Amino acid sequence: MDEDENAQIQAAVDGELRLLEPGVRASDTEVTALLDPEFTEFGASGRRWGRESILEVTGAVSVEPRSPVRVTGMRGVLLAPGVVHLTYHADDNGRRAHRSSVWRRHPESGWRLYFHQGTLTEDESA
Predict the structure, then answer these.
(1) pLDDT value at position 126?
(2) Are 89 and 102 in contact (CB under 8 A)?
(3) Is 4 helix (H, G, I), strand (E, B) or coil?
(4) CA 39: distance to chain centroid?
(5) Of 4, 24, 30, 50, which sits with the fewest C-beta atoms within 10 Å of its C-beta?
């Protein structure tokens, strides 16, 4: 893996982790800055979310600052220049999920989350 590939993957990882921060989730402005205009999510709940609908819940159902989401096994793959796929496990106070995200880089606005999927699991490693 070359330096540019590592930098692109790290930029996506940084964005993903920022979206899990309680202060970021509470701010529509910050969440909007990290979501692609064409953002889609298939949530662990089974619901399909778009950019506008996810903003309705990110502030209302924020991550608890005293017990943040625990992320393990974060891996990234550069699919094409400016497109990164991330996979990881998340544990949000015992609610465990396998997570998958696709990030893409925009020339004007930087890295933004294009697609996300969460699948609930009972797996203790998540």
Answers:
(1) 53
(2) no
(3) helix
(4) 11
(5) 4
pLDDT for 68 equals: 81
The token pair that represents 66 in the structure block: 């005293």
Percent of the chain's residues with pLDDT above 90: 65
- Cα 99–Cα 45–Cα 34 angle in degrees, nearest 5: 50
DSSP string, 18-77: HHTSHHHHT-HHHHHHHEEEEEEEE-TTS-EEEHHHHHHHHTTTPPPTTSPPEEEEEEEE
Give the contacts of 74 (CB within 8 A, at least 6 positions apart).
Answer: 13, 16, 86, 87, 88
Return d(Cα 89, Cα 100) in angstroms, integer. 9
- The answer for residues whose C-beta is within 8 angstroms of residue 50's C-beta and 6 or more apart is 39, 40, 41
Which residues are within 8 A (CB) of 121 and not within 5 positions of it... i.e. 6 or more apart? 89, 96, 97, 98
